[in-house]
Design brief:
Elements lengths: L5 E7 L13 E7 L13 H6 L7 H34 L7 H23 L14 H21 L5 H12 L5 H9 L2 H22 L10 H4 L6
Antiparallel strand pairs: 1-2
């Protein structure tokens, strides 16, 4: 269709559509194209650099900041992939029964989180979004199993997060912000935020322990695949 053209087409609403008065019904939509646009690359000049936060428009400084940010993001994503692989290997290497009460409690937490997120985004009444517990049970069991396994490893191998590790982790996070010192103080000033960093560092310690006791294979990963842009 070109700008100015109109078209009418039928559309059947899903049988489980949240708006019950429309569920399963066929509606006729009238569409008019107002404008057709195409993306074009902006010129790489001082104005472009300033739009990215480089106050003096220096292109060399802009490229340096972009390179630093990309390297930081690549490092973070590689670390995340390695962690997922290590924890999956750890889980597959051992079997044990987990308390049903813990799995049920975590299942309820996942259900509440799902309702709060999805219903809030789509404006759906939580009562109109019934969820079977079985939908979340496998994920809950994995979370509980992994949590118990990590706790035992941390205890047995003395893998607790050390203060210098926590400080270093906070400083690395702060480097991606314009005022790193303020970010560091923001974390240090709140026990809950510190606990989150401590838990992440503890997981890193477990991953390092797993890697030191496992046979690992390094593989090359394309940048677009790593960044989640493959096929776009």
């Amino acid at each position: 269709m070109a700008a100015g053209e109109s078209k009418t087409f039928p559309l059947t609403f899903p049988a489980d559509y949240h708006g019950k008065e429309l569920a399963g019904r066929v509606a006729s939509f009238d569409v008019t194209v107002k404008m057709v646009e195409q993306a074009t690359l902006a010129p790489i000049d001082a104005d472009f650099a300033r739009s990215l936060g480089v106050a003096d428009g220096d292109l060399g400084k802009m490229r340096s900041e972009i390179k630093t940010n990309l390297e930081r993001e690549v490092k973070s994503r590689l670390k995340s992939r390695t962690k997922d692989s290590a924890l999956a290997a750890l889980l597959s290497s051992t079997t044990f029964d987990v308390p049903k009460s813990l799995v049920e409690a975590d299942t309820q937490r996942l259900m509440r989180a799902w309702r709060a997120t999805i219903c809030g985004q789509r404006g759906i009444d939580a009562k109109e979004a019934p969820l079977p517990a079985e939908m979340f049970a496998p994920q809950a069991e994995r979370r509980v199993r992994l949590g118990l396994l990590l706790a035992e490893l941390v205890r047995a191998e003395n893998l607790q997060a050390q203060q210098q590790q926590i400080r270093k982790a906070i400083e690395e996070i702060a480097q991606s912000y314009e005022r790193p010192a303020e970010v560091i103080q923001w974390y240090l000033g709140n026990r809950e935020r510190l606990s989150e960093i401590e838990a992440a560092v503890m997981e890193d310690n477990v991953v390092d322990w797993v890697l030191s006791h496992a046979r690992t294979v390094e593989t090359a990963v394309q940048f677009d695949e790593l960044m989640g842009n493959a096929g776009r």
